[in-house]
Amino acid sequence: MAVWTAIEIELRHALYLVEVSQAAEHDSECTMIRTVMLSRSDDALGLYQQSAVDGITPKSISLMFPVESEHGGAAWCIDRLTEVWEADEPADAGIQAKIFAKANGGYFVDSLFRTSLDQLTNWRPISKLSPPMSA
Q1: 125 pLDDT more than 70
Q2: In this structure, how many other beta carbons lie within 10 angstroms of the beta carbon of residue 82?
């Protein structure tokens, strides 16, 4: 098993962290928690929505997104996602934007056209995600 000690992120766009549990090969009573980083929301949702396959059970999805820091540099925030909807893009109804509810409040829009939340109507629910873990 390879363990990463560093990751260089070249593009400053949102990334998705999917946490899964996996039964240990040598001991079915022991589970390991793993985190998978994905760059596309469709890939993150696809992994999350799989029922337990090969002993892997999805637990949560978090959004890691860039923000400006108070010192003028770049910083990253991570927020657990709780629910996801889709809506037609105003520029092309054949393309859907994804709207994610964040556990700490607010929404994140994954839009090909960078559509803002207030421009999206007729939200259709896709999935309720795991409730946020209590501190």
Answers
A1: yes
A2: 18
Contacts of 53 (CB under 8 A, 6+ apart): none
Which positions ≥6 away from 59 have C-beta within 8 Å?
19, 20, 21, 33, 130
Neighbouring residues of 45: CB distance < 8 A, sequence distance ≥ 6: 61, 84, 98, 126, 127
Using one digit for the tens of pLDDT, what is the confidence trace for 60-97? 999 999 888 788 777 889 999 999 999 999 999 999 99
Please state, in angstroms and rounded to a whole number, the distance separating the CA atoms of residues 53 and 100.
25
DSSP string, 90-130: TTEEEEEEEEEEETTSSEEEE-TT---GGG--S-EEEEEPP
Mean pLDDT of the chain: 87
Give CA–CA dist 30/11, Å, rounded: 37
Q: Kindly state the DSSP code that residue 23 receives in the 8-state scheme.
A: E
